[in-house]
Amino acid sequence: MLTRMGSRFTAVMLGLVLGGAALAKEPAKQQVKESSSRSAIPTRLDAVIDGALADKRLVGTVVLVARDGQVIYHRAAGQADREAHVPMREDAVFRLASVSKPLVSAAAMALVDQGKLGLEDPVTKWLPTFRPKLEDGREPVITVRQLLTHTAGLDYGFFQPPAGPYARAGVSDGVDESGLSLEENLRRLASVPLGFEPGTRWHYSLSIDVLGAVVASAGGAPLPQVVERLITRPLGLRDTGFVAKVPKRLATPYADGKPEPVRMGAHHEMSVGGVSFRFVQGRALDSRAYPSGGAGMVGSAGELLKFLEAVRTGGAPLFQSSATAAAMLAPQTGTLELPNEPGWAFGFGGAVLVDATKAATPQSPGTWRWAGAYGHTWFVDPRRRLSVVALTNTAIEGMSGAFQRDLRDAVYAGLAAEASTPPAPAR
């Protein structure tokens, strides 16, 4: 069931607003080109990054900005491994945590686009044994759309007390150690009563893990293979997947600390807003860990940018119809705004800005964004033809600390400065 603790932490998770690897050199259908044009943004971004590193709020980061399909800013800064004195590189690979969600959601939408999956399909069409009940014993229908939009009545264990229902059932959140299969984790998840009638509320949850199982069933193969076939291979993404292929390029994770971030051990627990996370580093290297659609992927900044730009520009080569990409970028929760985040609704794979004034953000209405607990943020502003990726190795600062807000504001201050600067006279 849902708790007040969960509500508090949802507010932390929703305090994301900005939330690379060097762009792949191999040919791919979707390319993001580098621009040589002058921009007012880089100086401002450099100041934000330098400040976060100097203040020891971050250990390392890769930040990329694309405008009109061209990279106008790219920088790797700080350390990938502080203790080993390994500098951050643009091709660093990160544990993505919830940045996995837009990728798996896009795989689901690709199947919808192909007519192999329906948004209104009951989940039981694809997962006959996934039948969680409400507290009163009724078994409601849960749809694919409700999984995509976090309105299915599910929860996360870190929203609950340490001995809460998910802990008692042994449910994995997808970033902890797990010898479970995906099927076994869903069996355990379905054994716990739903928190609310599906479709009546929005609550961040394990629904994308369930969606991953639906994608696997509808796609006719294990989830990693379906995501590769539908998303990463068409875009030429070699580093994005459920297991790190080159372990030495995997950035070392750190957790917020004073006077500087603390290096995470093999098992690391941290508390944010009174809620505890449990991170297990080996999951990113363990092919036996179940593929968590909501938190289990790894990838690089450059490859994430390429994916975001593909969705922003109409979905090719992922989708046959540009309407499918437009659906990902559109509000999909009706009148349900995100709790404690006025002005934001939810689309497919991320939140969507519906009222910039209420949200107190310089971003344009229609901006699509989300983040990841290991320290990542991203956003796409379609009206500005802008995509921004900021992957860090520092949780939680990189996700919802001052860094993501300052980076966002620096981007828009740079755009405003450009708009107010008269063009240079022709020679």
UniProtKB/TrEMBL annotation:
<dbReference type="InterPro" id="IPR012338">
    <property type="entry name" value="Beta-lactam/transpept-like"/>
</dbReference>
<dbReference type="InterPro" id="IPR050789">
    <property type="entry name" value="Diverse_Enzym_Activities"/>
</dbReference>
<protein>
    <submittedName>
        <fullName>Beta-lactamase class C protein</fullName>
    </submittedName>
</protein>
<feature type="domain" description="Beta-lactamase-related">
    <location>
        <begin position="45"/>
        <end position="409"/>
    </location>
</feature>
<keyword id="KW-0732">Signal</keyword>
<dbReference type="Pfam" id="PF00144">
    <property type="entry name" value="Beta-lactamase"/>
</dbReference>
<dbReference type="InterPro" id="IPR001466">
    <property type="entry name" value="Beta-lactam-related"/>
</dbReference>
<feature type="signal peptide">
    <location>
        <begin position="1"/>
        <end position="24"/>
    </location>
</feature>
